[in-house]
Amino acid sequence: MEKRARFKSACLPYALVAPQIIITLLFFVWPAVQALYQSMQLQDSFGGYSEFVWFDNFRTLFSDSTYLASFQTTAIFSVLVAGCGLLLSLLLAAFADRVIKGAALYKTFLIWPYAVSPVVVGVLWMFLLSPTLGIVAHWLHAIGIDWDHVLNGRHAMILIVIAAIWKQVSYNFLFFLAGLQSIPKSLIEAAAIDGAGPVKRFTSIVFPLLSPTTFFLLVVNIVYAFFDTFAIVEATTQGGPGKDTEILVFKVFNDGFKGGDLGGAAAQSVVLMTIVIVLTVVQFKYVEKKVQYA
Questions:
Q1: Does the N-terminal peptide bond of residue 113 adopt cis geometry, omega within 30 degrees of 0?
Q2: What DSSP element (H or E) covers 51?
Q3: Residue 163: pLDDT band by 50, 70, 90 thresholds?
Q4: Per residue in 32-44, is it b (16+ CB within 10 Å) or e — as a string?
Q5: Which CDD domains match (predicted)?
Q6: Which helix H or strand E contains 42, and what residues bound it?
Q7: Number of H helices, E strands in the chain
């Protein structure tokens, strides 16, 4: 017999969801509306003068070669962070799932990086890969790689990708590990008895059952790469050398707060928000069809 929750008061359901609705309106809907309104204005650096210019800020953006280049930089950065981060996390989770002795200690060490703030993560990896003081840079130099992220744009991109992956790998690891531990061992054992090897068992049983977790983490990691990596870029490369690591979210800050172009920065934030929403919708519409929930 199906059980249904019944509320004695008609107002109680609305009261229960009211806090979440209020938070969404205050911290998402209202700022989004404000950004959209401000993106159609031409303002001075202090916000004292403003003129309604409709879509001129957007026309200026898409005629700016440096802004268009930041799209390519952001795309490369996001693909590397999301793709490599998920692969590394899945590998670590698979190893952790097989550990018997010292499993709790092993898992604890893998979770710790998530507690570190993005700024600290950026500074940590900047020092590790410092061309003059960094121990990792010294190891690279010993094998013939002259590391210098200050002057080499490719090295700078690698630096922020490594830092961003290291910061997010713990979050991904937790979900992958929980997903692996929820898979019935009897299915894997039955496949092993039937002669399936480790790779066959993983591709035909484990990974399909992990597809809901993988899909969720894919969405989360793309949003993370677009929005939550600003502090890492600010603490390490500050968009340099040149504009080689100036991702979209950093360009919003750089043009708005350092360059004083408030209207242009608001237009950039609207474009960035639109891109993330479109990517999320596309993932739910097309990628989710390949997810197996049962």
A1: no
A2: strand 50-52
A3: very high
A4: eeebeebbbbbbe
A5: TM_PBP2
A6: strand 41-43
A7: 14, 2
